[in-house]
Specification:
The chain is α/β, with parallel strands linked by helices. The chain has 30 helices and 40 strands.
């Protein structure tokens, strides 16, 4: 039997290789010529466990790919697996189905009988429409929905829980018998033989019911809280009933899913280079501005490091065991039990759930320089044009520093005085001509004048006399990159006040007095930049100190280097620099805090670097990884310290020699040992391939956790997380993310959307309840809204019931006074209404106050929108402050009997 599969996407490609594995001759058809070429060369566009092997096993034998529909002439069965995305109105877009059908129609004839199988996810009635288009041909149409789960789709294909087949006429046995032969390997699998419409509905019903089941148990958990029952015991007992089953009965605040511990890290590029952030930090950052374009460090199809788009980040509450996977080389990651982990089988990627990972499974550690912004448009990554510059004026123009910063360039002032005098704010402008110093803020409107002069001659400072000056533009060349490295290893920034109370910022480097080469290097770099410094030598230490608010600001805020040993990290600009600049940076950081260690009676060497900054350790390991240097990691507490120290180690002759040369003259004391190695000792703890290394899982631990966990999705479903480990992204299942996932996979989740709509309609119902109390006229009525964030003790306004209600109140002309116990929630609310010009109510009809009692003062009614325990407030005092004694309790949290005794009218949700 010959089979054609039209569409080589997620469903079609797995269908093609699966049927080839069963022994059928299969041809896959796709309009994308490049994709077809790659597939015929055995290059798989998808990361799915086992898919690569099956493709390479059968392509050129039982399986081939083409762009020509002519191949279907010889096919007995044609599977239609094209995409059905949503159109602008949210309906399934069937253009590709109909287009493929028209292409099939051109090849069909009445002589040869064929079965056309609709495997795409389509609305009810689609099979009947396809049949109508082909009514003049000798074909039967079969509905055969897929039930593949991303990440384990190949497993699902070969281990189906049921096979659903829908037919036009169940009395017509011919197509039924042929389809049973197609799936003849599944003798022990239940076959559901039904009509078209039922088969189409089964797909939607199955997915929607899972969500309904989860929603049900979450609803039940609320009641359990009220009556004092244990939802875990209830779920367990329910699950024993075979009619119900125990899957998808884990209660929680939403649809759970695979997630990361909030302290695990992710490498993020907002457009300026790579930053190391925790999942929590990234979520909080995007909560402030979710319109930013974000890329995440991941891999390309060759398993080399690369950047991909971030599609989604969510968080949820979690109360259960986490899995801690500990690998060789000291790297580990902490995730939920059902998080998909990428493991290696040979040189292929496979997916396992975290709780199914076994000791000795191998996890990938990709390497290779990735496509940073500076390298994308130029093949020569060392080109001088790629050197990143810092425009100091641009960086400080929106900060308080702009008011205190001066620029000195006597030649510029003399030559351009006639052009700049009209912009000067000084009282005695001819003093400026004399000393060549102007206020920086005066130059901003005419800053193009500065570009005529050497940036090093445009000197910036914040004190008029005896000051340290810096150039107006700083190039992150090799010298400055080394200076950054020295700072991260040996630097600090301090703040103090002089006798007049003026704040000073000092930046310093501390070396051992014997480290003359490194001390002189730092001094030479500063001299090259004409930056003044002082030296302090005491008790074997040699400090270089610079007094400059501007330079301190550049290092702390622009380069994001941090100001102490605990918060330091590699600047994004270094990751975005050419490779030779990165190499110079490594010289500085390793010379500062790195060491060369003799081993085995001085016969061998390794190199160590220590830091107490987790972010610095993570970013340094990834930077070295990009150069193909694989490091090990040891976490320990030094000298009884409670702070964890991260010790990065480099071993193996080739790696040690490559990195050892970065230490300069110091390497000469060790080079002889490296040259006299009896044999080329390879690094231990990992296996190296061309584009990645593989680490073995050494142990798997469980630890109970109760708190928030975070989910992400990327373009290719993969990302680099803590310590450079490659992991799969999450399978989020909360309502909003589930809807998005369904839509991304061409599924219209009607029931899930209905659930979400009920939630949205609830606030309208409550708002109408308030309006009805006032005979639908709330114009100029004053309402005290207590609770702004979506839940207590957070500043997150997304999905906040309080904000939605405020919008409705303001729209109908009400005056709103809002309050939340969290200061940042109040600030976020103010900013929201200030920034959104269509909601420019703040200071007019909307007031956000810092005191609850000021909020309720003279209010016509109090509205509770967040589950804070407002019962702890002084209601007798509130009683005297309000204008009218009315409470609308949107959370059923107020002690109604108590406030009724004070004369309040009470209206809750479903109770009075």
């Amino acid at each position: 039997m010959k089979i054609s599969v039209i569409g080589t996407g997620y469903v079609g490609l797995i269908q093609s290789v699966g049927l080839a594995e069963f022994g059928f001759d299969v041809v896959g058809i796709d309009i994308d010529e490049t994709k077809v070429k790659h597939l015929n060369n055995g290059k798989c566009p998808l990361y799915e466990d086992g898919l690569d092997e099956l493709l390479q096993k059968h392509v050129g034998n039982k399986l081939k790919f083409t762009t020509s529909y002519e191949e279907i002439k010889d096919s007995d069965v044609i599977f239609l697996c094209v995409g059905t995305p949503q159109d602008d109105e949210g309906n399934a877009d069937l253009r590709f189905i109909y287009s493929a059908t028209e292409s099939i129609k051109k090849i069909l004839d009445n002589e040869h009988y064929k079965i056309i199988v609709i495997k795409s996810t389509v609305p009810v009635g689609t099979n009947r429409k396809i049949k109508a288009l082909l009514k003049d041909y000798n074909v039967d149409i079969v509905s055969n929905p897929e039930f593949l789960r991303e990440g384990i789709a190949v497993h699902d294909f070969f281990n189906p829980e049921r096979i659903v087949l829908g037919f036009e006429n169940l009395e017509n046995k011919k197509p039924i018998e042929i389809m049973k032969k197609v799936y003849g390997n599944f003798n022990n699998t239940p076959f559901i033989i039904t009509d078209w419409e039922s088969a189409e509905m089964i797909k939607y019903a199955s997915n929607a019911f899972l969500a309904t089941k989860i929603s049900f148990v979450n609803e039940l958990s609320k009641l359990s809280d009220e009556v004092g029952a244990d939802i875990k015991t209830i779920s367990k007992a329910m699950g024993i009933d075979k009619r119900i089953g125990n899957k998808f009965l884990n209660a929680g605040i939403g649809y759970g899913g695979s997630c990361f511990h909030p302290d695990e890290v992710i490498f993020v590029d907002f457009g300026n280079g790579l930053e190391c952030m925790t999942f929590k930090e990234l979520f909080d950052e995007l909560s402030k501005n979710n319109n930013r374009s974000v890329k995440i460090l991941s891999i390309n199809k060759d398993l080399k490091l690369d950047l991909v788009n971030l599609k989604l980040i969510t968080k949820r509450d979690y109360s259960d065991d986490l899995i801690v996977l500990k690998t060789s080389m000291g790297r580990e990651i902490k995730i939920t039990k059902d998080h998909p982990i990428v493991v290696l089988n040979g040189n292929k990627l496979h997916i396992k759930l975290a709780e199914d990972v076994k000791e000795r499974d191998e996890i990938a550690l990709p390497n290779g320089e990735f496509n940073s912004n500076c390298n994308k448009n130029n093949n020569n990554s060392n080109n001088i044009n790629n050197i990143i510059t810092i425009d100091v004026l641009e960086e400080i123009k929106n900060t308080p520093l702009i008011e205190k910063t001066f620029l000195n360039n006597k030649n510029m002032v003399l030559n351009e005085f006639d052009n700049i005098r009209a912009h000067l704010s000084n009282k005695y402008i001819y003093d400026i001509k004399k000393n060549g110093t102007v206020r920086v803020k005066d130059m901003l409107p005419i800053r193009s004048i500065l570009n005529k002069y050497n940036h090093n001659s445009n000197r910036l400072f914040t004190v008029r006399s005896k000051s340290t000056t810096i150039p107006s533009v700083i190039k992150i060349d090799g010298d400055f990159a080394r200076l950054i490295g020295y700072y991260l290893a040996e630097g600090w920034i301090s703040e103090d006040c002089n006798k007049k109370g003026n704040v000073r910022k000092r930046m310093g480097f501390s070396f051992g007095a014997h480290e003359e080469e490194y001390i002189n290097d730092v001094k030479n770099i500063l001299n090259k930049l004409d930056i003044n410094y002082i030296e302090k030598i005491k008790n074997g230490s040699h400090a270089i100190i610079i007094s400059s608010k501007l330079l301190a600001y550049i290092f702390e805020k622009v380069l994001k280097c941090g100001n102490n040993c605990y918060n330091k990290q590699i600047p994004p600009q270094i990751f975005n620099s050419p490779s030779n600049i990165k190499w110079e940076f490594l010289k500085g950081i390793l010379r500062g805090d790195g060491g060369i260690v003799k081993l085995n009676n001085n016969k061998n060497l390794n190199i160590e670097y220590g830091t107490v900054s987790k972010k610095l350790a993570n970013s340094l390991m990834v930077l070295l990884q990009s150069f193909g240097i694989i490091t090990s990691l040891k976490r320990c507490h030094n000298n009884k310290s409670t702070t964890l120290t991260y010790i990065i180690r480099i071993n193996g002759l080739n790696q040690v020699k490559k990195i050892g040369e970065l230490f300069g003259d110091k390497w000469n004391n060790y080079k002889e040992i490296a040259d006299n190695y009896k044999r080329n000792i390879k690094p231990v703890g990992y296996k190296k391939s061309d584009n990645y290394a593989s680490l073995k899982v050494k142990s798997i631990e469980r630890e109970y956790y109760n708190g928030e966990v975070y989910s992400v999705e990327t373009d290719n479903n993969l990302l680099i997380s803590s310590y450079g480990l490659l992991v799969h992204n999450c399978f989020p299942k909360d309502v909003k993310a589930l809807i998005k996932q369904f839509e991304n996979n061409n599924i219209s989740p009607k029931l899930i959307k209905a659930t979400d709509e009920v939630n949205e309609e609830q606030i309208i119902w409550f708002f109408d309840k308030i309006k009805n109390y006032y005979n639908k006229d709330i114009n100029q009525k004053t309402f005290a809204v207590l609770g702004l964030a979506f839940k207590p003790n957070t500043d997150d306004l997304r999905e906040s019931r309080g904000i939605k209600l405020i919008d409705l109140l303001l729209k109908d002309g009400a005056v709103v006074k809002g309050f939340d116990y969290v200061e940042k929630a109040r600030e976020n609310t103010i900013n929201r209404y200030k920034l959104d010009k269509s909601k420019a109510f703040y200071g007019y009809n909307l007031y956000i106050l810092d005191n609850l009692y000021e909020t309720v003062k003279d209010a016509d009614a109090i509205i509770i929108t967040t589950e804070y325990d407002f019962n702890n407030e002084d209601w007798e005092k509130i009683n005297k402050l309000v204008k009218n004694k009315v409470v609308f309790d949107g959370r059923n949290i107020i002690d109604r009997d108590r406030i009724k005794k004070l004369g309040f009218e009470y209206y809750g949700v479903g109770r009075r």
